[in-house]
Amino acid sequence: LGSAGLVTAVNISRQVYSHQMSYNSVWRRYKCITKLDFDENIDVKKQVRLLLEEQFEVETTVTKTAKRKAEPYALGTTKVFFRPGKLEILENIRKKEKQKLAFKIKHRVKGYIQVRRNQIIRTGTIKFQALWRCYSQYTKYHRKKEAAIQLQCWARCVSARRKLQLLKEEKAA
Questions:
Q1: Starting at the edge strand that comes first in sequence, how are the strands of the sheet with 19-22 ordered?
Q2: Where is the Myosin motor domain (predicted)?
Q3: Which residue in 14, 82, 135, 141 could disulfide with 19, CB within 3.0 to 4.6 Å?
Q4: pLDDT band at 5 (very low <50, low <70, confident <90, very high)
C-alpha cells in the first residue's frame, strides 16, 4: 500500500477533510438550522446535501495542485467529510439558532409568568375589594342599628317620662 501511494493519499485526504460524520448524525444535529421544509420520505443523503448546499456557498478558490473548486465538504457513500473550520461554522450557526429558540422560550415563559402574576393580583384585588365592601356595609349597618336603638331608647324614655308625669298629675289630682 505504501508503494502504491495509497497511504499518502489517505493522509492527504485526512488533512484536507479532517472531520467526518455519518449522514444520520449530520441530519440529526444540524436539521434545526435549515429553513427548508423536508418531507420525511426523502432520503437522508439528499436531505443532508440540500442542508449543506443551503448553509455553504461553494467556495471557488483554486488550489495549486488542481484547478477545481475547493468544496467545504465532500459527500461519501456513508459519511460526510468537512474541511477544517467548516464544522465550526455549522456549530456557530446551530448555536445561534438554539439561542434564538431559547430567547423565544424565555420570552414566552416570562410573558406567561407575568400574565399569571397579574391574574393573581387581580383576583386578590377583587377579594380585597369584596371584603372591604363587606366590612364597610357591616360597620354602616351596626352604626344605623345602634343609632336606631338609641333613638328607640330615647323615645321610650320620653314616653315613660310622659306616662310618669301623667300618673303623678292623676295622683296629685
A1: 19-22, 79-82, 73-75
A2: 1-95
A3: 82
A4: low
